[in-house]
Amino acid sequence: MKKLCITILVVALTAAAVAAPVSKGSQIAAGLKGPEIKWSIPEVGKDVQREVLDNGIIVYSMPDHRLPLFSVSAMIHCGDAYVPLEKMAIPGLAATVMRSGGSTTMPVDSLNAILESIGGMIEIRPGYDNARASLDVMAKDIDLGLRLMADLLRNPAFPDDKLDLAKEQIRTDIRRRNDNPGGITGREFNHLLYGDHPSGRVIEWSFVKPITRIDLAAYYDAFFAPNNLMLGITGDFDPAQLKTLLNKYFGDWKKKEIVLPEIPKVDNTPRPGVYEVFKDINQANIRFGHLGIDRDNPDRYAVGVMNYILGGGSFTSRITSKVRSDEGLAYHAGSSYFTDGRDLGTFNADCQTKSSTAYKAVRLMVDEVNRIRTEPVSDEELNDAKDSYINRYIFNFATPAQIVGQLMSLEFDNRPPDLLHQYLDNIRKITKEDILRVAKTYLKPENLSFVIVGNPAGFEKPMDEFGKVTTIQLTEPVTE
User: pTM here?
Assistant: First the structure.
């Protein structure tokens, strides 16, 4: 009787909730229509100013007086892409020790003490084909902040003790690189597809151990010069004062000839098959894919939208819905198609699941790859994907720093000046036929490389259905 009463009560409450009229406030809110949001892509010369100092430094600037803050972002052409395999550790070490080692005119402890006293920050980070430095201070400290940043960029000390400390950190990372299954999966997948190309290299202690201060100084001399530097500046500043300070602290930095080495071409030879990496765990970390396209491919917009529908659209994508929501096999499952690089990017799908459901998860994901190549997507899927791309685009320009960064990056990467203006039109004009065409063209099931980290003994079925199985042995990293 008690169960019956509870059931009746639940049904009654549910019916009442369903039948309850929409509140007057909700009705009013639903009927409200705000003014149309007028927004345009920011432009150089209008929203953002561009100047070139006499020594070649390119400066993008955009005042913002809403808060008493001041920020600088610097970009230098350098990085992993421009050095040979045996020197691959130098760019990262150079960036790290530039910051941790201070300058030849100011020890790092003094630099840090000054920054702490004014609530400021200077960071230097390495990248694939660049290094980035940033400065953040209060507007009242613009003069001091620019002086400190210029000193660090122009006069790095590269002290031996800080270099040794940075090398030890890399050695620790190498020792522990086989601890995390996800890290193993990503590393082996990239190395399988790219080999010893800068995009696929695996760092070894033998590359790091012999590096000296002389190597860092030589790398610095090869790439750091005012005519190889761009500055993006935003915040509460006066343009005339800013120009004076830039000339004061950067103006006497002498330009020199910088020759950027040619970046190696990616070997696009397919490496299909299943590559099992044994690790005695009860989970399987799965990633499969192949090399894709670069940023100059005119189909990159349609490829991005196609991937959103396939596995890039969070909970709405096909792979996520099938593997996570419908089958409950993984907390995360999805796909990516990287199209923004100067080199060939990758298509990949990935998930982590129990060993006993590894085969099923792979089968479901591969089936979705095949389905999007053979069946048109629905109008709803296409519209949702395009709306997502269009609606989130504006957030790339939400702050002055983002605006300056977007425009500066175009020139830094030698991209067409009107690229940002083309974006929305290129997304809007994508059709279902385009999605099917690019899926057939740029998804290649016959070329899929599968990397699976786990214990194959726990898989419910052998993975040879997806290609020849090769075992990759994890070896203990050499760190002595």
Answer: 0.89
